[in-house]
Amino acid sequence: MMRRPLFRLCTLLLLATACASTRERGTAATPLMQSEYSVAEDIHVRQLAPGVWLHTTLAGADFDNYPANGLLIEDGEQSLLVDMGWNTRHAEQLMTWARDTLHRPVRAAVVTHFHVDRTGGVPALTARGIPVYGLEATARLAKEHGHPVPPSIVSESQKLGPVEVYFPGAGHAPDNIVVWHRDSGVLFGGCFVKDGAAKDLGNLSDADVAAWPASLERTRQRFPDMRVVVPGHGQAGGPELLTHTQSLLR
C-alpha cells in the first residue's frame, strides 16, 4: 500500500532537482537567471531586453580607463556582437562568455565606426574565422589610422541577422552607423549619440558638426519605434538621447 506514494515522492524530488539545475544554468528554453555579469574586472554585461545584452569594457591607462558600450544580440542558437571592446582580450572574453554562459557562440560582428574603442577587438574574431562587418569607409579609415580593419563590407542600409545597420550620415565620425534591433526596440547609437549626463560632444577630431543634426533627424524618422537608445559611452536611455545630442550641437 505504501509503494505508490513513495514512488510518486521520489519522482517529484527528481523532477524538482532537474528543474532547479536547468534554471541555474539556463537553456534555449529557459532564460538565464542572472541579468548582470562581471566577465572580468574591466568587462561588465547586463541584459537590456530579451535577447539583448549590453557589454561595457574599460580602456587601459592610455585612455584613463574610459568605459565603452557595445551589444551582444542573441540570434537563435548563436549571437552577434556590436562593437567588441578596446582590445583583443576584451573580444576574446566576450566570445567566451557568449559561448559558455549564454550558450550562444558569436557567429558575426559589426563595428559602428573606425575608432579603436569599436575596432580594437577585431583581430580576435578574424583569428577565429568569424566575419566582422563595417562600412567600406570604416575599413578605409581604420587602415589609414592604423586601427584594426573589419574585413567584411556592409552596405549603408542592410539587414544583418537579427538587426538592421543604417548609415544616417556623418556626425561623430564620417562613417558612424547605428544598429536597430526591431524585436526589442533597442537602437545602438554608438558614439553618434551622447548619453543623458554628457555636457559636451566629446571627441570631435573626426566629427562633422554641421552634418550631425540632420543625421540625427534621419535616424529619428527611420526608427520611430525605438524604445531604448544605447550611446557609445554612458548610460542607456530612450529617444530623448537623440534630443539631448541635438541640444549639445546647438
UniProtKB/TrEMBL annotation:
<keyword id="KW-0574">Periplasm</keyword>
<keyword id="KW-0862">Zinc</keyword>
<protein>
    <recommendedName>
        <fullName>beta-lactamase</fullName>
        <ecNumber>3.5.2.6</ecNumber>
    </recommendedName>
</protein>
<keyword id="KW-0378">Hydrolase</keyword>
<keyword id="KW-0046">Antibiotic resistance</keyword>
<comment type="similarity">
    <text>Belongs to the metallo-beta-lactamase superfamily. Class-B beta-lactamase family.</text>
</comment>
<dbReference type="InterPro" id="IPR036866">
    <property type="entry name" value="RibonucZ/Hydroxyglut_hydro"/>
</dbReference>
<dbReference type="GO" id="GO:0008800">
    <property type="term" value="F:beta-lactamase activity"/>
</dbReference>
<dbReference type="Pfam" id="PF00753">
    <property type="entry name" value="Lactamase_B"/>
</dbReference>
<dbReference type="InterPro" id="IPR058199">
    <property type="entry name" value="BlaB//VIM/IMP-1"/>
</dbReference>
<dbReference type="InterPro" id="IPR050855">
    <property type="entry name" value="NDM-1-like"/>
</dbReference>
<keyword id="KW-0479">Metal-binding</keyword>
<dbReference type="InterPro" id="IPR001279">
    <property type="entry name" value="Metallo-B-lactamas"/>
</dbReference>
<feature type="signal peptide">
    <location>
        <begin position="1"/>
        <end position="20"/>
    </location>
</feature>
<keyword id="KW-0732">Signal</keyword>
<comment type="subunit">
    <text>Monomer.</text>
</comment>
<feature type="domain" description="Metallo-beta-lactamase">
    <location>
        <begin position="67"/>
        <end position="233"/>
    </location>
</feature>
